[in-house]
């Protein structure tokens, strides 16, 4: 398997990454590679198989996206022989990258809404069950080593917030020596909070948080781990479409699909955000349904490249799941309406009313 200067080869075997330590001075181990010249980017694209790489449109794309970032998507254009096929074009490459960015933005929006509820429920239940500083008592957690790892991450996050001038945190530290759990949870990263939840000893807390999402604690632990991995990819500007999840979530009951595909996070999030309560005067409160609407808008807009992006063919079935939305899914599927080139409109039957979302 050959390498190019973009680090383009993909190894099948997983190797543990080395432990890296950087000092202030650096000397490369071997001769440094030559930097890319802006004028040669199109030629590199042509050499890799994108025959329109030398056009003005291709130059415009590479000037704004960068050859290094674009090259991460080249394998989506390879055929069974591992070569980039004759149908590859920079125009379609740009559309694939654009879809990935919009897909990630959509996921981040609804992961954020999930996070809000997750933080709120954990803060409420943990502090009521175990006290105002429950997050600092090692007896509240199952594994001491995991708790020690959490404490180190929390300390780093706490200090960063103090440096940013977080007044609420400063006042709490001066008065108590730490923030109460409901404030501490607000400054934790999602990864740190997930670590804390997974290690929480109290079944009442774990089950209570899970029940607020209509699922079990076992499912929620698995799903938050997978969601955290997706969130990290999105937050660090990585590629998502056409990759595999770093942590396979438990299958959603009744929802078919490859649970290693990032697309599987979509129905999981819809399930977590779904609420049987619908406020006709404010449909923005129905996060699960607005997610359906926004996902349909995105997938319909990019329908011609979904296969290239490794979105499963049954994506529509995964979104309109009776297991998630009950009888409403039938109504959504039969009454959805989207004018060509217009905004997608979701129509949901509730009682004798038809609600537009």
Q: How would you characterize the overall build of this protein?
A:
The longest helix is centred in the first third of the chain and has 41 residues. β3 and β4 form a beta hairpin. The chain is mostly helical and 357 residues long. The protein has 15 helices and 4 strands.
In short:
By secondary structure, this protein is mainly alpha-helical. The chain contains 15 helices and four strands. 51% of the residues lie in helices and 3% in strands.
Question: What tags apply to this protein structure?
Answer:
51% helix, 357 residues, 15 helices, two-stranded antiparallel sheet, two-stranded antiparallel ribbon, mainly alpha, single chain
Summarize the helix and strand pattern as letters.
Answer: HHHHHHHHHHHHHHHEEEE
First-last Cα distance: 50 Å
Content-based structural category: mainly alpha
Helical content class: 40-55%
Strand content: under 5%
- Major β-sheet strand ordering: 1-2
- Radius of gyration over all CA atoms, rounded: 24 Å
What is the strand tally? Answer: 4
How many H/I helices? 15
Biggest beta sheet attributes: 2 strands, antiparallel
> How is the quaternary structure best described?
single chain
